[in-house]
């Protein structure tokens, strides 16, 4: 695995040059125009500055295990190759195997004690203290109902919420799984997230977006000595949504709304309130929205090839200052934050559009902020 690093110390002059270039690229008219909106709060301080880019070649990063370790593989995901813990600080022998080779999704618990690992057919927990695997029953009697392409969400350290072929399933850490929501025919989630109720650590709100571009919320309660269960029915929050992400404290939704053909608008919406939210930016496609664990940063990918402005952006959610960290728009790869919120990982297969399976190329980039 090759690793290269490069320092990017942004001076005020350089930052102004980037801003001028972006605003110049937004000029013009037409449906593909990017419009940069005034942020909720404007301030000279609070800039997000990129300190370093770490590139791992021939590696695909699934998740962060700690601020200095990622879980990765050296083969394309469809090959179900072994998983490794890769250290970003240990030069000698930086990798150790996990004894697992069945991953399409990997999601560590908030404290990093347990991994949820799944592929198209199977799912299991992996305890990090002894690497013991705890299989989950994801069968309906005729075969697997797991939706292995959708990354689920932890309900703190208590349980895990994930997607099945016909609904949402909750599993406790002993491997017991049960459905908490059955979907209507033809409905399927494409993204699942969750946030704990700040007033009651036993209650959570799950959020999901389906193939019909609708965003819903669902209340889930985990009571002592009882299996997690849903409270009430799903609530429809947004229609015509291309993507979303809920803030860690559960107070805000960042939603990419479809406002026309090849036209998206990124909005911040307060949960529990109706009406139009605060518009952050408009463009052709906005995807892979992701909050940092402390809620101080919001990452998203913007594609707008004809008018410029395409790339990966990170916004300071307190000041509204937005930084362009990569010119690559990355519309399909998850943006995954380190636990401390100071590093953002993006992994992809065939980054140079080499689509031949014999020459599949993997690449992971980690953007480290000051």
Automatic annotation (TrEMBL):
- TM helices/strands, residue ranges: none
SUPFAM superfamilies, per this entry? DPP6 N-terminal domain-like
Name of this chain's protein: Uncharacterized protein
Q: Which UniProt keywords apply?
A: Signal
- Signal peptide coordinates: 1-24
Q: Looking at the record's lineage, which domain of life comes first?
A: Bacteria
Q: Which residues form a coiled coil?
A: none
Which Pfam families does this one have?
Answer: PD40
């Amino acid at each position: 695995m090759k690793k290269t690093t490069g320092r990017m110390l942004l001076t005020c002059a350089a930052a102004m040059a980037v801003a001028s270039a972006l605003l110049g690229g937004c000029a013009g008219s037409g449906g593909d125009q990017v419009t940069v909106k005034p942020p909720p709060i404007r301030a000279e301080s609070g800039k997000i500055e990129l300190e370093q880019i770490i590139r791992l070649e021939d590696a695909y990063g699934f998740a962060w295990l700690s601020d200095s370790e990622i879980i990765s593989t050296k083969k394309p995901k469809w090959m179900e190759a072994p998983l490794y813990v890769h250290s970003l600080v240990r030069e000698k022998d930086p990798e150790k195997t996990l004894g697992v080779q069945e991953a399409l999704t990997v999601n560590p618990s908030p404290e990093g004690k347990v991994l949820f690992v799944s592929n198209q057919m199977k799912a299991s927990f992996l305890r990090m203290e002894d690497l013991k695997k705890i299989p989950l029953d994801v069968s309906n009697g005729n075969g697997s109902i797991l939706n292995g392409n959708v990354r689920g969400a932890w309900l703190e350290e208590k349980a895990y919420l994930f997607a099945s072929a016909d609904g949402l399933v909750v599993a406790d850490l002993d491997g017991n799984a049960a459905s908490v929501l059955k979907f209507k025919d033809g409905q399927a989630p494409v993204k699942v997230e969750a946030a704990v109720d700040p007033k009651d650590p036993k209650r959570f709100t799950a959020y999901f977006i389906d193939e019909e571009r609708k965003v819903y919320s669902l209340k889930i309660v985990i009571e002592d000595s009882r299996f997690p269960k849903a409270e009430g029915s799903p609530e429809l929050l947004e229609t015509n949504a291309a993507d979303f992400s809920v803030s860690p404290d559960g107070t805000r939704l960042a939603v990419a709304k479809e406002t026309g053909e090849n036209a998206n608008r990124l909005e911040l919406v307060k949960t529990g309130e109706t009406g139009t939210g605060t518009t952050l930016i408009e463009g052709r496609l906005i995807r892979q929205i992701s909050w940092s664990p402390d809620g101080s940063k919001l990452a998203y990918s913007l594609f707008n090839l004809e008018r410029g402005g395409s790339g990966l952006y990170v916004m300071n959610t307190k000041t509204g200052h937005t930084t362009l960290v990569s010119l690559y728009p990355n519309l399909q790869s998850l943006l995954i934050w380190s636990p401390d919120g100071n590093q953002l990982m993006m992994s992809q297969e065939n980054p140079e559009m080499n689509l031949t399976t014999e020459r599949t190329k993997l690449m992971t980039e980690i953007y480290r902020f000051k």
